[in-house]
Specification:
The protein has 13 helices and 15 strands. With 348 residues, it is α/β, with parallel strands linked by helices. The protein starts with a strand and ends with a helix.
């Protein structure tokens, strides 16, 4: 029986609230959880543990950023485990040293992205991913494309698509004041603005005299490449608690993803969040979106076709599609998904 959980993540716990945070906060209701981040650049050397949302977060402070942990951090992890029966739950293969530091621990790989396809991925990541997938007792896959690419590893590979906190996103009635001065239609994207975004689709939509809101931080993208127009609005990172009211203030939720290596395997968590908020959704062609939501989400290929589809959906929103989207989102709650993941781990 697992008595504690050590989680290794390439994402900061206090960053954009997404799959790892949804899962580990629920796992922390069952057993103590230590969420180990990548080393954080700092002038001081320390391994600090703070409690956030019921999870103990270990942030190694080091002179320079690294993808791996040194002996000092690993010793701090062993001290925290203190002889308890641990499971090591990894979001990045670059933290396989956490499993090496805890011999006998059950290894879980929650594969949420094809990280080796992202910009600035460490060269060793692909080989480490193969090693992790081989050693893991369980490999959860956050989407069907990721699952299909790993299913030959056998029964330990489990499809566990991302869910939604339905009541959180369905509750908002009053739009966020951030958009109060904008004339409709307003098209909104919620998430990190990075190399996965198709800038041409945003530009094409902006040329339709529409308001385009990009709600989230910029990362791994040159800001100079993004459209700088009066009707394109960048909010920066916004609190998770504000997302329902931000979505309430837009007319159409959009997923303007580029067709590149970084998007080939993605299964956007934002899809059920958009649907739970009762918004019509337009996306560029993403395999997992088309498979799971093709009867609800409008999919358009090419920048001009994407912009045309957005304008058409805003002009004539399909109430039946929106209602089916709400019900589809209601059926994929995080509580049930994490309960299933935990039950699989308990059987190991």
């Amino acid at each position: 029986m697992v008595e504690c959980l050590v989680v290794g993540s390439h994402l900061r716990f206090d960053g954009v609230w997404q799959r790892p945070q949804h899962i580990v906060t629920r796992l922390a209701q069952r057993v103590p959880v230590l969420f180990v981040e990548e080393p954080f650049p700092s002038r001081i050397q320390d391994d600090r543990i703070a409690t956030e949302a019921g999870v103990e977060v270990l942030r190694p402070l080091r002179a320079a950023h690294d993808f791996e942990h040194d002996a000092r951090t690993l010793a701090r992890v062993r001290e925290w485990v203190d002889g308890r029966r641990a499971a090591v739950w990894l979001y990045t293969p670059m933290m396989l040293s956490l499993a090496d530091a805890l011999p006998g621990a059950t290894i879980v790989y929650d594969c949420m992205d094809e990280l080796s396809a992202f910009d600035f991925a460490p060269p060793a990541l692909r080989a480490r991913e193969r090693a992790l997938a081989s050693r893991a007792a369980l490999v959860f896959c956050g989407g069907t494309s990721l699952y299909d690419a790993r299913r030959d590893l056998g029964a330990k590979v489990v499809l566990a698509p991302s869910g939604v906190e339905f009541e959180h996103f369905a509750r908002a009635a009053e739009p966020h004041p951030l958009f109060a001065h904008l004339a409709p239609p307003i098209f909104g994207y919620v998430g990190v603005v990075d190399e996965r975004i198709d800038v041409a689709s945003i530009e094409a939509l902006a040329r339709r005299d529409a308001q385009v809101a990009l709600i989230g931080p910029l990362a791994k993208i040159d800001p100079a490449t993004l459209p700088r127009r009066a009707n394109v609005h960048f909010t920066g990172r916004m609190p998770y608690d504000d997302l329902p009211s931000l979505l309430a203030g837009i007319d159409v939720a959009i997923m303007p993803f580029a067709a590149n290596a970084a998007t080939r395997f993605i299964s956007p968590t934002k899809t059920p969040e958009y649907l739970a908020a009762g918004k019509p959704v337009v996306s560029t062609p993403i395999v997992d979106v088309a498979r799971a939501y093709g009867d609800i989400v409008t999919v358009a290929e090419g920048a001009e076709a994407f912009a045309d589809a957005c304008v058409a959906v805003a002009a004539r929103p399909d109430a039946d599609r929106v209602a089916r989207g709400v019900e589809r989102a209601r059926a994929v709650g995080w509580d049930e998904i994490v309960r299933g993941m935990w039950n699989r781990l308990e059987r190991e």
